[in-house]
Amino acid sequence: MNRADKRRKARELKKNMKMVNKLTPQQTKLINIAAMDKAKEIAHMKINQLVNLADRCMSAALMEKDWNCNEIKKIQLRITELFQEDTEKSNELERKNVNMSKVEKEVKNYIEELLEKGVTKKQALDDLVFKFPKLSKSMILNAYAKVKEEKETRITREKIVELAKKYGLDTDGKNKIANHLGATYSTISTYVSRWKITEAEIKEKNEIDDAVEEILDIIEEEPKEVKNKKEKLKEWDRKYNSSGKLAAEVKKNKEDKSMGNKLKILSMTVEGENGKYKVCEKGVELQNKGLTMFFENIEQLENFTKEYKHVFEMSK
Fold first, then answer.
1. Tell me: the pLDDT tens digits for 74-125?
2. How far apart are CA 48 and CA 43, in angstroms?
3. pTM score of the predicted model
4. What confidence tens digit (pLDDT) does each residue in 258-273 have?
5. Contact criterion met (CB below 8 Å) for 304 and 310
6. Rounded-to-integer distance, Cα 241 and Cα 290, Å
7. Secondary structure class of 266 (helix, strand, coil)
8. Residue environment code for 232-241, b if the CB has 16+ CB neighbours within 10 A, otherwise e
9. Spatial contact of 169 and 199, defined as CB atoms under 8 Å apart
10. Which 8-state DSSP code applies to residue 156?
11. Residue 72 class from Cβ within 10 Å (0-12 exposed, 13-18 middle, 19+ buried)?
12. Residues 159, 37: Cα–Cα separation, whole Å
């Protein structure tokens, strides 16, 4: 719009305002009523156009999924019912000026409680409708689905395996895992199947945990028990490493062929949170990110730790 058009518009508006100011109150009222009726007519026409467009597109999308007309009609009818209820409830909440942020928080917390208890979807929705009667079913259903999905995204393969080591993978074990993670039995069963978590894997994980715990106990014994420690290390190797499923490397050395094969532990590597520990007869070596530390005995380690702490205290 150029300058001339703007001036022309301004003149027309000014002229129209003069005419409006000359109208009587009764005339103004009639014009307002007519204008409101016309606005409603236009709004209804636009809404109907939008509804028809949405119905047509939704029907097409469902037909692509091989839904028949009868199934689609039922869905459309249900959507209409939910829409009407949601509109009424929304207007009522707005009229009463309800603090929706507070209500949404309460709903979320209650849904999390229900999921923790492992109740079914139907029971959970019935409880929510009873506890929050001011909310529409569409509000409740959307809130439930959102919280449940957020809860399930926190489920990982590692978490299920860790809990399965404690509870097992039978029906009772899956129920306990589901309760612990705030999920349902069917959800956990689905993940177990999808991620191919087996009883054999859980058994192997438990064997590794037992082996690592036992080797750490042996390593942490007093230095004076060197001879006894060697025997325990040999026994540990016979007990765990024969299956070849342990996350520790054991090197074998044949000493005297005339006396048969004897097992001698030359070195052993155990991986932990702080890096890779290499255990040998002379001590323990720690490797992490290209750095190496070595201690011959517990006394050396304690002296090093003591000095390290002292330096930290000096820096305060």
1. 998 898 899 889 999 999 999 889 899 999 999 999 998 888 777 888 999 9
2. 9
3. 0.43
4. 333 444 555 667 777 6
5. no
6. 28
7. coil
8. bbeebbeebb
9. yes
10. -
11. middle
12. 62
